[in-house]
Design brief:
By secondary structure, the protein is mostly helical. The chain is 85% helix and 0% strand. The protein is elongated, with a radius of gyration of 15 Å.
């Protein structure tokens, strides 16, 4: 098992976690704590976040699919590229922390994947 395989799996799991938080736990204490919201903010943004959560679920599915597919690298590059772009955009428009949580791990994994590691 390569380092990039492990990282793809971890990034996929992270997106499953974000999917669950945004789709199902957004207005619960755990969801509000994770995103720094209060009950009023959570209620006002609940529908939009469910949509965002769905996209995170698709990213996770694609990353896991790339672990099973042959040839794996092209598919993994596509979904890691999506994660990277989403992370950069989210970091610029929503919260800089997203760059560190989402974009940088995707970039490191892309580099390792394409180096064959």
């Amino acid at each position: 098992m390569t380092i990039s395989t492990v990282l793809i799996a971890l990034i996929g799991l992270m997106h499953v976690y974000i999917f669950v938080l945004e789709m199902f736990l957004w207005d619960t204490p755990k969801g509000m704590r994770a995103f720094g919201n209060n009950a009023e903010q959570a209620e006002q943004t609940k529908k939009k976040k469910k949509n965002m959560g769905l996209y995170n679920g698709f990213l996770a599915a694609g990353l896991f699919w790339s672990l099973l597919a042959e040839p794996r690298v092209a598919l993994a590059n596509f979904f890691l590229g999506c994660v990277l772009i989403a992370g950069i955009y989210g970091g610029v428009t929503a919260n800089k922390k997203i760059i560190y949580i989402q974009a940088i791990p995707a970039l490191i994994t892309l580099i390792l994947l394409n180096l064959g590691k």
